[in-house]
Amino acid sequence: MNMAKLSVHGDDPTLSSILEVLPTDPERQWRKGEPKAGGRVYLDSGFEVVIAQAAKSQVLPSRVRSYLAECRSRGVTFTMPRIVAELQLELNGDDTLDAPLDLTLADMQHLTEMGISLSLVTRAAA
User: Fold this and answer.
1) Are 111 and 26 in contact (CB under 8 A)?
2) % of the chain at pLDDT higher than 90
3) Is 67 exposed, middle or buried (0-12, 13-18, 19+ CB in 10 A)?
4) Could you read off the pLDDT of 52-103 as tens digits, one per residue?
5) Cβ distance 112 to 87 under 8 Å?
6) What is the rounded average pLDDT of the residues 6-28?
7) Are 103 and 61 in contact (CB under 8 A)?
């Protein structure tokens, strides 16, 4: 399954204000100081929101566009100090080998304007 996920971390008051107006509830949240794998702890609080899941990777860009448009209409931005946001695209399986995942210049500009970086992960079919 291919997935688009938004991962955000930073200071608690700003994260709370973002979560209040975000279009969906986070799938996962953590707090600064909580333990994580390997005996380490989180250095700041954060959350992850699954934006889209689809069998075909080509579906993800339109769903990401829709989600981010809804965020913009609600006044959500990630350009505040002490906030880091990343759009994570995880592509899995054979359909990603010959099928493009097209992000337009406008898509990239919207990500930049909203303060969102991009991470792309591909995994071979099992």
Assistant:
1) no
2) 74
3) buried
4) 999 888 889 999 999 999 999 999 999 998 899 999 999 886 655 566 788 9
5) no
6) 95
7) yes
Give the other-Cβ count within 10 Å of 23's Cβ.
15
Q: Are 121 and 101 in contact (CB under 8 A)?
A: no
The Cα–Cα gap between 48 and 29 comes to 6
Closest CA to 85 of 55, 44, 52, 36: 44
The set of residues, in sequence order, having a beta carbon less than 8 Å from that of 73 and lying 6+ positions away, is none
Question: Token digits for 32?
Answer: 């600064």
* Structure tokens given for 49: 């929101």
Residue listed under structure tokens 């002490």: 82
Q: How many CB atoms lie within 10 A of CB 25?
A: 9
- Ranges of H-type helices in 1-126: 12-21, 60-73, 105-114
| Token pair for 91 | 């592509």
